[in-house]
Amino acid sequence: MMANPLWLLLPWALVALSAGIKFWRLTSAWRQREIASSDQTDTDAARQTLERIWEQDQQRR
Predict the structure, then answer these.
(1) Region at 11 (left for phi over 0; alpha for psi -120 to 50; beta for the rest)
(2) Has residue 8 got a pLDDT over 80?
(3) Using 50, 70 and 90 to split pLDDT, how confident is the model at 2?
(4) Is 4 exposed, middle or buried (0-12, 13-18, 19+ CB in 10 A)?
(5) What are the CA-CA distances from residue 37 to residues 5, 16, 22 (Å)?
(6) The pLDDT value given to residue 37
(7) With the CA atoms of 8, 10, 15 and 17 taken in that order, what torsion angle do they form, in degrees rounded to the nearest 10?
């Protein structure tokens, strides 16, 4: 038996850390895209982009 019950928290801390690292890696592509498009502050350009995506989605159906 372990002397201190706080040792039970160590595996959970490792799971939480690894989940955070995995999430960070999975979202890195999205973050890079956001950084690259951050100079596009014009609302009309953003609206046109969304409309183009919507039209492409409608054509696929």
Answers:
(1) alpha
(2) yes
(3) low
(4) exposed
(5) 49, 31, 24
(6) 63
(7) 150
Mean pLDDT of the chain: 84
Q: Which helix (H) or strand (E) holds 5?
A: none
Residue with tokens 């960070």: 24
Query: What is the pLDDT, as a whole number, of residue 61?
Result: 74
Cα gap 34→6, rounded to integer Å: 40
Helices vs. strands in the chain: H and E counts, helices first = 3, 0
Neighbours of 15 (CB within 10 A): 10
